Amino acid sequence: MARKHFKLSKLTLFISLFLFGCILFLLPQTATSKLNFAFIDIFGYFLNMGSSATYYHAPQSASPDFVSRQDYNRLQTAYANLQEELSEQKRQLEKLSNVRLTEPDPSTGLVLAKVVNRKENEFIINRGSGDGLKAGQYVLGDNAVIGLVEQVSADISIVRLITSSACKIPVKISATDVNTYFNGTMQGNDKKEAVILNIPQKYKLKAGINVYASPKAGLLQSSRIVGRISKCAPGERNPVVWDITVEPAYEFNDITDVAVIVLKMPGQL
Amino acid sequence: MKWLRFAFLITAGAVIQSSALMNVVSVTDMHIKPDLLLILLVYFAINCDSYDVIIASFAIGFAADITGTLIGPHIISYGIVGTSLAYIRKVILLKHTRQQSLTIFATGILTYLIAIVLVKLKVPSATGELFRAFAVSIYSAILWFLIRWPVITTGKWIGVGAHRFGKKPEEL
After folding, report:
1. ipTM of the complex model
2. Phi–psi pair at A194, nearest 5 degrees
3. CA-CA to A120 of 20 to 30 Å: which in A58, A88, A90, A150?
4. pLDDT-based confidence at residue A77 (cuts at 50, 70, 90)
5. Is residue B26, in this structure, part of any structural domain at all?
């Protein structure tokens, strides 16, 4: 006797799979992101394969008078951060002339991580909630702020880069000629830059000025460089304000290691 | 259709799609890359029988979602568009490479549009990159001319495409 083969009709099959898709779609992202992280966990090696072959690295010059562009950028960023810290210290010293400041702050912790995968305006790093990472924490690449932690699993996390339109961070622009700062909010433009809108034109700003991430309680204790102004043009909608374009301090493709700022609470010290 | 081989192919496609290797073929400052899963969707939709296309479309959509950060939008969009394509090809054979390339472009636009709308519904702050969808669809359509033969060969290994034009008219 022939065995009867059970087969769903096309319509039933389509509706079943469609409903399955809808259920997955309606589930909270925190639950479904485990699948994404599992995929990265399993195929992490293959996903990162070829990353060193992708980008051209110029050969090192034999002359001791020259450094590579990457080294130059790293030194320049360190210099900008030190300069910023120095001016901040000076200001505080003026206020509290007799109080001795301690640097670096003992409550600041850095969790070093490797970039295991790169996507459009985001990095996947090999550290997660088990290492103290939480959404919203600042991520540094060679001392410059490159993005914010967006999602975390137990052992990997997604970092949203500053060039993503989904990444908004409070920044301050240092205008050294008038010895002051202008505050604003920086948002990525989904290309290779970020923009700061609505800075009043009474402030004289120009390309090349450094942009710093503003300190944020519980997340960032002192200002850190994020990039430099690459274009400063009158606002498209409102000509009395500046529309500022910021280029990141680093070429993200060159970054292979990052550090996440994990501030420890007083009880954890 | 040999489903185990199909699962292997889709997994490999998803891994290659999201791997750093794809940066080698990315173009412009926006890093536009072709969508291999989109190409596979159209290939299976054209060459399998409609029952298999329904399963394959949702499976490819799931693979597309798993390489991203949000599960759901691509399963729905790939499932709907792939299944529709399986019925459309009963009217238009889509036998020529140029027609297939054009189909990849149109399918890409439609699939991405649905996915963008669904992503917006779930994450209102997400940005719908329409230009990127357009560029990826064009790039994938152009790439079809180059990778057509490897895909067809792999398709035969999976057990599709052999009877589509001529041998099994009842499938059409």
Report:
1. 0.88
2. -130, 165
3. A58
4. confident
5. no
